[in-house]
Automatic annotation (TrEMBL):
<keyword id="KW-0963">Cytoplasm</keyword>
<dbReference type="InterPro" id="IPR004569">
    <property type="entry name" value="PyrdxlP_synth_PdxJ"/>
</dbReference>
<keyword id="KW-0808">Transferase</keyword>
<feature type="site" description="Transition state stabilizer">
    <location>
        <position position="150"/>
    </location>
</feature>
<feature type="active site" description="Proton acceptor">
    <location>
        <position position="69"/>
    </location>
</feature>
<feature type="binding site">
    <location>
        <position position="6"/>
    </location>
    <ligand>
        <name>3-amino-2-oxopropyl phosphate</name>
    </ligand>
</feature>
<dbReference type="GO" id="GO:0005829">
    <property type="term" value="C:cytosol"/>
</dbReference>
<feature type="active site" description="Proton donor">
    <location>
        <position position="190"/>
    </location>
</feature>
<dbReference type="InterPro" id="IPR013785">
    <property type="entry name" value="Aldolase_TIM"/>
</dbReference>
<feature type="binding site">
    <location>
        <position position="49"/>
    </location>
    <ligand>
        <name>1-deoxy-D-xylulose 5-phosphate</name>
    </ligand>
</feature>
<comment type="pathway">
    <text>Cofactor biosynthesis; pyridoxine 5'-phosphate biosynthesis; pyridoxine 5'-phosphate from D-erythrose 4-phosphate: step 5/5.</text>
</comment>
<protein>
    <recommendedName>
        <fullName>Pyridoxine 5'-phosphate synthase</fullName>
        <ecNumber>2.6.99.2</ecNumber>
    </recommendedName>
</protein>
<feature type="binding site">
    <location>
        <begin position="8"/>
        <end position="9"/>
    </location>
    <ligand>
        <name>1-deoxy-D-xylulose 5-phosphate</name>
    </ligand>
</feature>
<keyword id="KW-0664">Pyridoxine biosynthesis</keyword>
<feature type="binding site">
    <location>
        <position position="99"/>
    </location>
    <ligand>
        <name>1-deoxy-D-xylulose 5-phosphate</name>
    </ligand>
</feature>
<feature type="binding site">
    <location>
        <begin position="212"/>
        <end position="213"/>
    </location>
    <ligand>
        <name>3-amino-2-oxopropyl phosphate</name>
    </ligand>
</feature>
<dbReference type="GO" id="GO:0008615">
    <property type="term" value="P:pyridoxine biosynthetic process"/>
</dbReference>
Length: 236
């Protein structure tokens, strides 16, 4: 199973001061150097973390695979066609949300989705839809012409009751197998972390997991040791 690293929250931290550090592109290159198979960024309509210039610079720098997460809007379609990431992932977006809440409502938006994906496909960009692990959503994703689905693991990640969490995990396993049987590539993501990721190794159909917040949060603490030591060395 491959790891794609989402670097949105490097930009969140950078934007806290609205200056230059930390740089999401530098983070992306470091993640690639350490074995990440791809870099994920979500260009939100409100640009709360990743900004247009970040995306341009990421496109120039990333050599593995750039996955642009975006809402299904004309503006984002133009940006994707201009930027040409290897992959776009369509996600639902609500301006007020703290993070993505649930999968893309593919039943509601099916006709628009079919039209939306045509120029993306013609440009040679792969498309993935971030959906709930349900057979109906997967079937519609395949019918709409997506090459890939990203199964939403946020519900699994938030379950504190083990029996309920196992049940949700089985739903993801069945969804992955069903998606693969339709010829779709399968990715999983949202809310995955160092404690809840291990069971995913038992689902061979999931080729890749996409993880952001947990890795950036861990990096802050594991990196603090050398950051403090380095500063002390300078001032002593
Ligand atoms: C689709 C998904 O689960 C996440 O990648 C999410 O879209 C990231 O966006 P935020 O970093 O704004 O939470
Ligand atoms: N597609 C999921 C993603 O990119 C990262 O989600 P999270 O790990 O930040 O919850």
């Amino acid at each position: 199973m491959r790891l794609a690293v989402n670097i949105d929250h490097i930009a969140t931290l950078r934007n806290a001061r609205n200056e230059f550090e930390p740089d999401p592109v530098e983070a992306a290159l470091l993640a690639e150097k350490c074995g990440a198979a791809g870099i994920v960024c979500h260009l939100r309509e409100d640009r709360r973390h990743i900004r247009d210039l970040d995306l341009q610079r990421l496109r120039e720098a990333v050599t593995t695979k750039l996955d642009l997460e975006m809402a299904m809007t004309p503006e984002m379609q133009q940006i994707a066609l201009k930027t040409r990431p290897e992959l776009i992932t369509l996600v639902p977006e609500k301006r007020e949300e703290l993070t993505t809440e649930g999968g893309f409502d593919i039943t509601r938006h099916f006709d628009t989705l079919v039209e939306f994906l045509k120029p993306i496909r013609e440009a040679g960009i792969e498309s993935s839809i971030f959906i709930e692990p349900s057979q109906s959503a997967i079937t519609l994703a395949a019918q709409a012409g997506a090459e890939m689905v990203e199964l939403h693991t946020g519900t699994y990640a938030l379950k504190t009751d083990f029996a309920e969490r196992d049940k949700e995990f089985e739903r993801i396993r069945e969804a992955a197998s069903f998606a693969k049987s339709l010829g779709l590539k399968v990715v999983a993501g949202h809310g995955l972390n160092y404690l809840n990721i291990a069971p995913f190794k038992t689902i061979p159909e999931i080729e890749e997991v996409s993880i952001g917040h947990a890795i950036i949060a861990r990096a802050v603490l594991t990196g603090l040791d050398s950051a403090v030591r380095e500063m002390i060395r300078i001032i002593e």
